[in-house]
Design goal:
4 domains, alpha/beta, 22 helices, Glucose Oxidase, domain 1, 7-stranded mixed sheet, Alpha-Beta Plaits, Rossmann fold, S8pro/Inhibitor_I9, Subtilisin-like protease, protease
Length: about 850
């Protein structure tokens, strides 16, 4: 994830954030990173305990160390006067293209490339300690990452040859059933049309890969060598023999750790200097995107079946930019740089900023993604796990394909049965001996030493032989049953957080346990309070596939719109399966990631937008092969305009945080429907020039636009952000005085080589009159594109009751349905008191 807002230090590590706390009390999912320019995060975000177990995000302690380093750099002048040494921090320096060193024939710059550049611009009196270059960038950006003092950074920032100097930051990491849930079949539809995407290379920027003994990364004998255009390779390192572990499936493996080491101020372990995944996150995401088919896969006896990636024929190239304590922006940018040079076709990026989304020119992930998309590479990125609050989505630039997370039609129920017969269905992956049908004593953690069930704080005398109800927060969800076990308890019931509504998080517990919703936990607590001898048991029901509850439903943790930086750009784009996803796992880490958990598994079940993102990455790979002439924007358009918004019961896709229908700011344009996306009828395309026009419309300066590699002057480019050719409409009424807003779009007919006529059908949001002109678009063999204009006019009477209202525009020729969501944001003065 990318840069973040500064916050007060509060320890952290890995994704179980409730174990270690969060640097930002209002952003419980924060793991690492801080951005100097960002605003504080709105308080309406999910509570700390909720997000902790989600996708094993990585470290936050590094964030606090970085903030301390930046503060130290800011105080350098007074320190120099006192005779103390200046501290160095890590920075990414964006250089004007005319001042960059020439690119060598092999296409990559060495760290020595900017040596003379630094010597020429930093005077001798500022040269101690000497700057240290970490990376030189030529493809994902133009410039370098380096260790600099505050004065050295300021000096470079004042140079006419430097566009920007951005502090390096830490960022966080945000299937057996999913192919059939998505309708993928080798005998029909997109999978057949793409031949499994055998000519496509999916690059995955993550924690690396653990291919040994993992059939997901085995190459079928019929799989030919990778496409000749791919220039990547597998490098070796400790515990990773590239020549032995790579094959025609895993065709690339590289690692980038200098940024993390610089931010931490010390060398990382030996495994960091290797593509080996010691965390599990990268192995999980890469196998989800393009893993080979594996029969009989499962997590113990859970979710048993045939595991296969979305694009089973695609090649996988991994770029390890994240470690046990997060992902440094400089490492991420280096991974983008190499992936672009290697000529991958799709990039899967399950990471992003914590805190308020930074300006695009300051977001190095957005900069790298822009350069990739400009080269024709689709960049699929996770929306983040900061839901359900408003404007929590990250990776929100229009060139990203931004993915939210929703459920499958599969559950792992663990029922709490009380002594009075009441039953509450929870969720669990406990794989040990069951408790049995007999009820045993039930206590509340707050009455026996620790309401959150911290290890060492529970009273063993009061816990022995009993089930303990534990609240969320402080320690990791998987650590709570372990604490109960160590105190002699028989099992644990874990309460979810209030903001998560009906969702509770599934965990692979080492002791009998299940997680229930906040409301159900409160009922269980009331039962304990009102009974003389409360008792219960937990019934583990394994894997249940069916239509109850309806699916898909939006995950409470999935980050939401509207777009914080560009409200007229609709985000997230789509949703995809991201709850309880089975995929390959590392052999170097346990499924709970607890040190005391000695289990090792080949497959693990975890949740998050990190899991939904590679589903879309794999589908994008299929589309890339089936429709090689399509741009990244066209592929995104096809996925958005063919997405569906109705669940298995016929209602609007639900939201687990509210138990009501979800909104487009949660589900995006809807849930991906791959087989429809291969033939969308019309597409909304966008080029690099369109994205530059978008940046100009935001009011960016020439230097800020130049960070993206463009020398175009915005002074000659007048335009509106809302006119960016996006497959959705987001309109912001800043006051009641703004009577109407007009937005323009251009569509291209890809559904037929002959004449076609599409007619518009409008579902207007509350409070708005929507006019489309023309109402019919006519195409021919020579006229493939048509423009139309939409006017959104405030109704003069009445008030709206919500701050956001939604609708849609659907173009149809009788065969294709091309649907774009409409989102209206209202000024406070327009919203009636509820």
């Amino acid at each position: 994830m990318s840069a973040l807002s500064p916050c007060r230090p509060r320890a952290t590590l890995r994704g179980d954030l409730d174990r270690h706390g969060s640097c930002s009390p209002t952003r419980p999912d924060a793991v690492a990173g801080a951005y100097l320019y960002a605003r504080p995060v709105p308080a309406a975000t999910a509570p700390l305990a909720a997000t902790m177990d989600l996708l094993r995000p990585l470290a936050l302690a590094a964030l606090c160390a970085l903030l301390a380093a930046v503060a130290a750099a800011a105080a350098t002048e007074s320190e120099v006067e006192m005779g103390t040494a200046e501290a160095q921090s890590s920075y990414i320096v964006h250089v004007a293209a005319t001042h960059a060193p020439p690119l060598p024939r092999r296409g990559l710059l060495t760290t020595r490339a900017y040596g003379s550049f630094l010597r020429e611009r930093i005077p001798v009196e500022m040269s101690s300690p000497a700057p240290s270059v970490l990376y030189s960038y030529a493809h994902a950006a133009t410039g370098f990452a380096a260790r600099l003092t505050g004065r050295q950074a300021a000096r470079l920032a004042s140079s006419g040859s430097v566009l920007a100097v951005v502090p390096d930051t830490m960022q966080e990491l945000h299937t057996t059933l999913t192919p059939s849930f998505l309708g993928l079949s080798p005998s029909s539809g997109l999978l057949k049309a793409s031949n499994g995407a055998t000519d496509v290379v999916i690059g995955v920027i993550d924690t690396g890969v653990y291919p040994e003994g993992r059939p997901s990364f085995a190459a079928d004998a019929s799989l030919p060598p990778p496409p000749s255009k791919f220039r990547g390779r597998c490098v070796s390192g400790p515990s990773f023999n590239g020549s032995a572990l790579c094959n025609n499936k895993l065709v690339g493996a590289k690692f980038f750790q200098r940024g993390q080491e610089a931010l931490r101020g010390r060398a990382l372990g030996a495994d960091s200097k290797s593509p080996l995944d010691t965390n599990g996150h990268g192995t999980h995401t890469s196998s989800t995107a393009g893993g080979s088919a594996v029969a009989g896969a499962g997590f113990f006896d859970y979710a048993r079946g045939k595991a296969v990636g979305m694009a089973p024929g695609a090649r996988i190239a991994v770029y390890k930019a994240c470690g046990e304590e997060g992902c440094a922006s400089s490492d991420i940018l280096a991974a983008f740089d190499e992936a672009i040079a290697d000529n991958v076709d799709v990039l899967s990026v399950s990471l992003g900023a914590v805190g308020t989304a930074p300006n695009f020119y300051s977001d190095n992930t957005a900069v790298g993604a822009f350069r990739a998309v400009s080269k024709g590479i689709v960049v699929s990125a996770s929306a983040g796990n900061s839901g359900p609050g408003d404007s929590t989505a990250c990776n929100i630039a229009p060139w990203f394909l931004t993915v939210g997370a929703s459920t499958l039609n599969r559950q792992f129920p663990g029922d709490v049965v009380l002594g009075n017969g009441e039953t509450f269905t929870g969720t669990t992956l406990y794989a040990g001996e069951p408790l049995g049908a007999n009820k045993i004593p039930l206590v509340y953690g707050g009455d026996v030493g620790s309401k959150v069930c911290e290890e060492g704080k529970l009273n063993a005398t009061k816990v022995a032989g009993k089930i303990v109800l534990c609240e969320s927060g402080v320690n990791a969800r998987a650590a709570k049953p372990l604490a109960v076990k160590l105190a002699g308890g028989a099992g644990a019931i874990l309460a979810s957080t209030k903001s998560f509504g009906e969702q509770s998080i599934t965990s692979p517990h080492v002791h009998p346990a299940t997680a229930v919703s906040f409301v159900d936990a409160e009922k269980i607590k009331k039962y304990i309070r009102t009974q003389t001898s409360p008792s219960a048991t937990i019934v583990f029901r394994g894997t249940v596939v069916g239509s109850t509850p309806p699916s898909p439903r939006m995950a409470s943790f999935s980050s939401r719109g509207p777009n914080f930086r560009a409200p007229e750009i609709f985000k997230p784009d789509v949703t995809a399966p991201g709850v309880d996803i089975l995929a390959a796992w590392t052999g170097a880490n346990s499924p709970t990631e607890l040190d005391s958990d000695i289990r090792r598994v080949k497959y693990n079940i975890i949740s998050g937008t990190s899991m939904s993102c590679p589903h879309v990455s794999g589908i994008a790979a299929l589309l890339r092969q089936a429709r090689p002439e399509w741009s990244p924007a066209a592929i995104k358009s096809a996925l958005m305009t063919t997405a569906y918004n109705v669940d298995s019961s016929g209602g609007v896709i639900g939201d687990m945080s509210t138990s009501d229908a979800s909104t487009p700011f949660a589900r995006g344009a809807g849930h991906i429907h791959p087989n429809s996306a291969v033939d969308p009828g019309l597409v909304y395309d966008a080029s690099t020039e369109d994205y530059i026009n978008f940046l100009c419309a935001l009011g960016y300066t020439a230097k800020q636009v130049a960070v993206f590699g463009s020398s175009i002057s915005c002074s000659k480019r007048a335009g509106s952000v809302g006119d960016h050719n996006y497959p959705a409409f987001s309109v912001v009424f800043t006051s009641n005085k703004v009577a109407a807003v007009t937005q323009r779009r251009v569509v291209r007919n890809v559904g037929s080589d002959t004449a076609a006529a599409y007619t518009a059908k409008v579902t207007a949001p509350d409070g708005v009159r929507v006019t489309v002109s023309p109402e019919t678009l006519r195409f021919s063999s020579t006229e493939k594109t048509q423009e139309y204009v939409v006017t959104f006019a405030q109704r003069t009477t009445g008030s709206v009751t919500e701050k956001y209202t939604f609708g849609s525009i659907e173009w149809s020729d009788g065969e294709h349905s091309v649907t774009s969501p409409i989102a209206i944001t209202w000024p406070t003065s327009k919203v009636a008191e509820m």
